[in-house]
Design brief:
Pathway: Siderophore biosynthesis. The chain is an alpha/beta fold. It contains 15 helices and 19 strands. It folds into two domains: 248 residues, FAD/NAD(P)-binding domain, CATH 3.50.50.60; 136 residues, FAD/NAD(P)-binding domain (3-Layer(bba) Sandwich), CATH 3.50.50.60. 36% of the residues are buried.
Length: 434
């Protein structure tokens, strides 16, 4: 069986950026045999949130390559050049392309690595391959759409699987009920509810706001209740000094702080990334409710300072018990469909790597995003997008993706020299030093 230098789980923006980084380092004589496994049948990035008139919340300059190598073939600007749209994009006078266009850019970049990615395979587990008392290799087991099991060996691993839908506890018992679904599946699932008359959207962030406006603008649109615990929808703060927390060099600052300081930093700037829609979108929603007051037609409700106490499936719909946090009393409402715009969890790597947990301790990472392990564990395992608590709020965003993959790439290629490195059958691991 072929032994790869590196296997990547997931082929979204983070691991595409790593593939680009490793490809560009070949011109300097470095070569890593990297292979990626992606469970989707082809490249797709938030496919079920590709709503009309939605735009990026981040500058196109924070693409897969520019912050690391502005002269890269894989910059967004070169993508526009290759697609013969550069002049027209300049005339738009914007830093924020549509989400559809940025998705096309990512797909264009991913297409250059089709021979190095197995699409339509879900990784089931990662197993240790022992040599005497040491774990020398990793066996990555995956299942394709036909049910066939594939096994591949690798010296090193990188996990970039993105977030898994976060489902509030009161909705867990309704798993499998098609009337309740997460925003990550919105377009696919809402298509099954064309006749819905009353829909609840639970959440206070960008996704909740976009879905509310999408439902409002649909022909024969339903009554929509926007439900959130917050008192108001707060806009994202993208002012220059606040935006410095998403700079690549701020990662070093966050990582070097004490645990207590990091928690305080995450608390202070939480609203720059979570429960913080664009101001323009907030103004559109405010206008919807204002126009309702003008016409006297209360089609939608903004249930602020409300929380869902329980959710009960009934033949006629999903009944929610809602607590008004201001009034301190509960009331009941029944909906044909409920959209949970409730965010994501970033700990799925622990499930994938469970067979390795005896070697992983608390799954802590070093500065190069490499999991710290026991001395008898030789493979290096890197995480992308799962290190917010140690590396800062930018970790789950595109902001540092290009720079992060350069740091990981340097560790993989032996560029970073660390004290105490020894020669082993995995020179990459000797340099990573974790």
């Amino acid at each position: 069986m072929q032994i790869h230098d590196l296997i990547g789980i997931g082929f979204g923006p983070s691991n595409i950026a790593l593939a680009i980084t490793l490809e560009e380092k070949k011109q300097y004589g470095f070569n890593v045999d990297a292979f990626f496994i992606e469970k989707q049948p082809g490249f797709a990035w938030h496919a079920n949130m590709m709503l009309d008139n939605t735009h990026m919340q981040i500058s196109f300059l924070k693409d897969l390559a520019t912050m690391r190598n502005p002269s890269s073939y894989f910059t967004f600007i070169n993508y526009l050049h290759q697609k013969q749209r550069l002049q027209d994009f300049i005339n738009l006078k914007t830093f924020f392309p549509s989400r559809h266009e940025f998705n096309d850019y990512l797909a264009w970049a991913a297409s250059h690595f089709n021979d190095r990615c197995a699409y339509g395979e879900e990784v089931l587990e990662v197993l240790p391959e022992k040599r005497n008392d040491e774990v020398a290799l990793l066996r990555v087991c995956s299942r394709d759409s036909d049910g066939a099991i594939h096994e591949r060996l690798t010296r090193n691993l990188i996990v970039g699987v993105g977030g898994m839908p976060s489902i509030p506890e009161c909705f867990l018992s309704l798993k499998g009920d098609p009337r309740v679904f997460h925003s990550s599946a919105y377009l696919r699932e809402i298509a099954q509810h064309g006749s819905a008359k009353k829909i609840a959207v639970v959440g206070a962030g960008q996704s909740a706001a976009e879905i509310f406006m999408d439902l409002h603008n649909r022909p024969g649109a339903p009554h929509v209740d926007l439900i959130m615990r917050a008192r108001a929808i707060k806009p994202s703060d993208d002012s220059p000094f606040v935006n410095e927390i998403f700079n690549a060099d701020f990662t070093e600052f966050v990582f070097s702080r004490s645990d207590e300081d990091r928690v305080a930093l995450l608390d202070e700037f939480w609203h720059t990334n979570y429960a913080a829609p664009d101001l323009v979108l907030i103004e559109q929603i405010f206008n919807v409710f204002y126009q309702q007051r003008v016409t006297g037609n209360e089609r939608h409700r903004f249930l602020r300072r409300h929380e869902v106490v329980s959710a009960n499936p009934l033949p006629e719909g999903i009944q929610l018990v809602l607590r008004d946090l201001n009034a301190g009393r509960e009331h009941v409402a029944t909906y044909d469909a409920i959209v949970l715009a409730t965010g994501y969890n970033r700990d799925h790597h622990k499930s994938l790597l469970k067979p390795l947990s005896p070697y992983m301790g608390e799954f802590a990472v070093d500065r190069q995003y490499c999991l710290q392990s026991t001395p008898n564990f030789r493979p290096a395992i890197f995480l992308q997008g799962a290190c917010e608590s140690s590396h800062g709020l930018s970790d789950t965003l595109l902001s540092v993706t290009a720079v992060r993959t350069d740091e990981i790439g340097q560790a993989l290629l032996g560029v970073v020299n660390q004290p105490g490195a020894t020669q082993t059958d995995n020179p990459i691991r000797a340099v990573a030093g974790r």
